[in-house]
Protein 1
Amino acid sequence: MAASEVPEGLLYHPEHDWARIEGDAATLGITDHAQDLLGEIVFWDAPEVGATVKAGEAYTELESTKAVSDVIAPLSGEITEVNDAASETPETINDSAYGDGWLVKIKLSDPSEADALLSPSDYAGEISE
C-alpha cells in the first residue's frame, strides 16, 4: 500500500480528520488515509450551515462502498460553509481529500483546542504504525 499523503500546514485528529486554521476559522475534512480506508465514497449528507460541531464528536457521516462512517470534528465551532460540490459528487472527497474534497468551514469557538491536535509528522507516525 502506498503511503498516505500528509500535507504540512494542517493539523490532524487521531480519527483521521484534518483542520486548516486561518485566523478564527477552520476548514475541515477527512485525511487521505481515511478516504483510502473507506474506499469509494458514494454519499455525503452535508450538515446545515449554522449547526455547531464539538471537537471529538461526530458531525456527519460518509457512506462508502464498504461502510458508513462518522466524521469526527477536530475542533469546535459553528458551520459557516458547506462544500455543496462534495455533497453532489462525493467521489471528490476521494480524489482530493485536502483540496476540493473539504467538507465544512467553521468559525472556531475555542481556538486553544488546536493545541490538542497532531502535527503532520506526528500524524504520519500514527498511520505508519
Protein 2
Amino acid sequence: MENELLPEIDLEFLQEKDFNYELIQFQAGVYLIIKDYEFPPCYAPQKANLLIILPAGYPNAKVDMFFTIPDIKLLNGNFPQAAAAHPTHNKVAWQQWSRHSEWRVGVDNLRSYFAAIKTELTKGL
C-alpha cells in the first residue's frame, strides 16, 4: 500500500533514515507523520511528531509548511518565528511551522524537503 502513496525514491529515503513513520491517505493527499523527529538543541522539547502534508499530485505539487505535536518552543519559552498557529489535520491540532521553500517539479522530493526543514530548524528562529 505504501507504494501507492509515495514514490519509491521517497520510500527508500524514509527507510534509509530509519524514520518511524506513518502514512495516512485523505482526500486532498497524504499525511506523512514522522514519530519522534529530533530537533536541534535550541528547541524544547527536542523530539516531536512531525507532520508533512503531501498534496494530491505530489511530487508534481508543492509541499509547503510542516507541523508538530507537541508544541516546540525556543529555549526562552517563545514560539519560533511563524510557528504559533494550530490548524487541525486528521482531527488533531498541530503546531504549524510556516516555512516556505522553492519546489522544483521533477527535482524535489522528500530528501530535498527534509534538507530544507533541517536548514530552517538550524537557524533557531
